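From the shared-data thread, chain only:
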Amino acid sequence: MIPKINFKYSENPYYVVWIKILIPFVKKILTKRSNFFLKINDVISQRPLIDGTYEPHLRELYSSLSRDGFNDFYIDIGANVGLSSILVGYEFKLLYLFEPNPLIFKILEVNASLNLDKDRYQLFNYGLGNLNDNLEIMIPKNNWGGAFIVSKDNHYEESLLASKDGFSSLKSCNYIKLNAKIKKTSTEIKKIFTNIYQKEGRNGIIKIDVEGFEEVVLKGIASAIPGDSSVVIIFENWNEKFNINEVTDSFNNRASAFKVNRDSKKHWPALIKNLFLLFGGKYLYSLKKIEEVSSFTGDLVLYIKKID
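Structure, as tokens:
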């Protein structure tokens, strides 16, 4: 006997027709998008969904470096779903992607499988730090790309960790809290370079997005890069107290520091600036020596030269 179930649902047939009319247009719009799984209401997903790109100025930097001979490897520390590395994966011989967020890692696995040859990449479901450890990771519900590790080694103040995702404080209701595995940076990077050398690689790039662990990871990398390798490191920093000199010193005179600078015409009168952009003007991105900039927040670049 079937139990009595109180079920009712109504739907406007014109709305259904409207949806069917829209589907071909949506398909056409999405045809040129990357073959990627994304959390559609996430901050980092907005531009990829609109035009198929993510941080296009950095993507061009990665591509330029690849063309200039830094194409043996791409190490992505804090890979998230792979928007930075997988989208340029075909330009590099080997890819090594680290992501400690256990939820995001599942999506990273899918995106890598969809876009990369399986013999060219390795995925690691852990983050890098000072020591092997298990720590808490806090994932903003509105921005899974902004997840961060809770630790005394995190150099971002709580106010910065909250404000970067639009919050006034680290209220538990705004985050998903999980356990994340952390491994010692120097040990893991040495293992990676052993693998790279077995495949006759020497020159490549390392991208870092670790939400406050930048100094820890960079200093660990400094002790692990072989002398006959040349590496470009690209990382994001929002700590105004970031000590760039201390970081470069850890590379023993091998490091030169730069900042990705955008010429936004901020000194122009607003009317002139708007007319310039309206009639085809463009923002110009370039690398400026760290000595020539007044702020160390934003996208920073380290060139690590070979030891003669």
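The radius of gyration is 22 Å.
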